[in-house]
């Protein structure tokens, strides 16, 4: 019974892109997998992968789902990007209270392992970080530029503090750890890449910003799957619980300029890579104005901001981290990937430049682009009194 229990995994947010990819990998290895999410998976799912519809904000729902589970991968979160970042109430409910519910359910129902999917942002708030490691302190909560990062930091603290909690059924202790991934990419990713491709196809992606020397990191979905499986294994007695109470940065281990990383995608879809480079402060100010406008009219028209302030920092300011701890303690060895599969995925679904765009259409986009830049630039000028 204990062996069966130890090989039963529940994944919160299991029907999302990464959660489902992790589920298929675990299932392929012979484990029993339970997907816990607010909506069923869009992909065709093997019959022996169980789906439980529920919300981590409802304790009773998650408590029922963890019965008989040996390990929880807590992936579910809200508010990572776009207009979601501006919904403070839901962000707080999912990321903070939802995590508390998951931890309580594990303790009450004898779940011995929990791996939490955190974020780089628990230590990053717009400051330059070069080859940082896990000894970096949490960014003070009041310095977080967005509510998502603040709540993810609170949630990670709760998860690591819960490590070593005695389980109510007397079967032992709850062992927990946290993984802090970079931006996720891979064929079929549904959060960031479609938004980027949409900007490219609409002619909005006509400039880059920040220093050309700025470096960030990304993680391929399969590398992140590998890291999670290794982290869960490292929580077992066979591995002396070596990951218990620990946090790990996870990426491909290849710092790169954010815009250069996406160059193969832009050019692979048949579009020219932008030659205009704008100062970071100008784009940050534009993002600030966008957020203020959303705050005013969001209740009536919940539009998608072009960029938020946090997204400007994450894409334009150098921050990358050492994988030494993950390699030494988890045995994590990231494989090399590129964007070829991503380009092919989008092309197979009808994306890519066509010859039907008229000269007039391109001219209108260029005029609108220049007008927007002039408007933002003029807003910096002082108001002269009469």
TrEMBL record:
Designated name of the protein: 3-beta hydroxysteroid dehydrogenase/isomerase domain-containing protein
Name of encoding gene: sdr42e1
PANTHER family: BIFUNCTIONAL POLYMYXIN RESISTANCE PROTEIN ARNA, SHORT CHAIN DEHYDROGENASE_REDUCTASE FAMILY 42E, MEMBER 2
GO biological process: steroid biosynthetic process
Pfam families the record matches: 3Beta_HSD
InterPro entries: 3Beta_OHSteriod_DH/Estase, Lipid_A_modif_metabolic_enz, NAD(P)-bd_dom_sf
Domain 3-beta hydroxysteroid dehydrogenase/isomerase as annotated: residue spans: 10-280
Top-level taxonomic group: Eukaryota
The entry's keywords: Membrane, NAD, Oxidoreductase, Transmembrane, Transmembrane helix
Source organism (scientific name): Echeneis naucrates
Transmembrane segments: 282-301, 363-384
Family: Belongs to the 3-beta-HSD family.
